[in-house]
Amino acid sequence: MQQNARVGGGSQPLLYNHNKIWTKPFILAILIVIILGFVSLFTGVYDIRGQEDGMDMFFITRVPRTAALMLTGAAMSMAGLVMQLITQNRLVEPTTTGTIEWSGLGLLLVYLLFPAPTLVLRMTGAIIFSFIGTMIFFLFLRRVKLRSSLIVPIIGLMLGAVISAISTFIGLVFQVTQNIETWFVGSFAPVQIGRYEYLWLIVVVTFLIFIYANRLTLAGLGEDVATSLGVNYNRIVLFGTGLISLAVGIVAAVIGNLPFLGLIVPNIVSMFRGDDLRGNLPWVCVIGMGTITVCDIISRTIIMPFEVPVSLILGTVGAVIFIIILLKKRKQGGLR
Q1: Labelling 59: which of 69, 185, 230, 332 has CA 20 to 30 A away?
Q2: How confident is the model at residue 177, as a pLDDT?
Q3: Known PANTHER family for this protein (predicted)?
């Protein structure tokens, strides 16, 4: 980290990396994602070039699906990046903090209160409960004295397991499990025009994270350091949690459960770029888009003409990378 920058026009200095974003590797990464997007547009069982309504289906299903892939990949990767920064732990993301499970509980309760909820209602429930669950996770962390690399995600996984059990129990008692069963197996198959547009709110979330990147970076250094540099630690953590909840809630309502994406991408980026949020954010978004698009293409082609839920592919790849990260940290003495 080099050079001084001002925080919100104040007098306190903030250190962050001024590395160029538009480098040759970054441009190459964008070109690869664009190519993957074109492959996604023309991947599927339906022959859009050989049918009379092929072009209609192209714009009704293929274009929305590819756009949803890009937006979702960026959203979940960003959520993981911000969570890892705030908690100062590389093993943290919505899957390992219980945030996803809280989103599912919010969706379930919305279905209980409203028999045929609109997408806005589902998103609202998922966002509110994502926020509540993430704040509860942070409150637990404040009371835990032992803050090793493994303890933090273990706490999150335990909380998530409890919330998942509660959701299952409520669903069985009130016979509404079938209403959210697609959420448990996140898939882009139902995405079509008119059912994904709220994902564009993720662009706003990205913009806000980039604007507040300096403050979030300071929050990642700890409460004492952030306060000494003139940043209201509690306020910025609350703001960051709100952005995470907004992104995760939207994805949970529209797509469903997408495990480990927020873990894989930020760790890959940090391996060759360090921990600068402002500099890493574009990379995280682009690689997140590419990762989810590759997994979705595999899910559509591996057993054609049938389709495997993308969460299955993503979960398998993510679990393997999660284990690799653990082994690498253990070898480097990073696990205590």
Answers
A1: 185
A2: 73
A3: FERRIC ENTEROBACTIN TRANSPORT SYSTEM PERMEASE PROTEIN, PETROBACTIN IMPORT SYSTEM PERMEASE PROTEIN YCLN
Phi-psi map region of 107: left, alpha, beta (phi>0 left; psi -120 to 50 alpha) = alpha
Alpha-carbon gap, residue 65 to 297, rounded angstroms: 11
**Poorest-pLDDT segment among 8-17, 270-279, 300-309, 314-323:** 8-17
Q: Which domain holds residue 23?
A: 2-311
The b/e string for 165-185 (b: 16+ C-beta within 10 A; e otherwise) is eebeebbeeeebbebbeebee
Instruction: Give the Cα separation of 284 and 265 in Å (integer).
Output: 6
Summarize the confidence of residues 26-30 as an average pLDDT. Answer: 90
- Per the model's pLDDT, the better-predicted residue between 56 and 335 turns out to be 56
Q: What are phi and psi of 63, to 5 degrees?
A: -65, -50
Distance CA(292)–CA(311), nearest Å, equals: 9
Partners of 13 in the β-ladder? 6
How many domains does the chain divide into?
1
**How long a stretch of residues is the chain?**
336
CB atoms within 10 A of CB 4: 9
- Judging by beta carbons within 10 Å of its beta carbon (0-12, 13-18, 19+), is residue 210 exposed, middle or buried? middle
Question: What pLDDT is recorded for position 61?
Answer: 86
Domain holding 152: CATH number?
Answer: 1.10.3470.10
pLDDT of residue 34 exceeding 90: yes
In-domain check, residue 111: yes
Q: Is the pTM of this model over 0.85?
A: no
Residue with tokens 């994502």: 130
Band (32; pLDDT cuts 50, 70, 90): very high
Residues whose CB is less than 8 angstroms from the CB of residue 258 and which lie 6 or more positions away in sequence, other chains included? 72, 76, 186, 251, 292, 310, 311, 314
Residue 3, classified by CB atoms within 10 Å of its CB into exposed (0-12), middle (13-18) or buried (19+), is: exposed
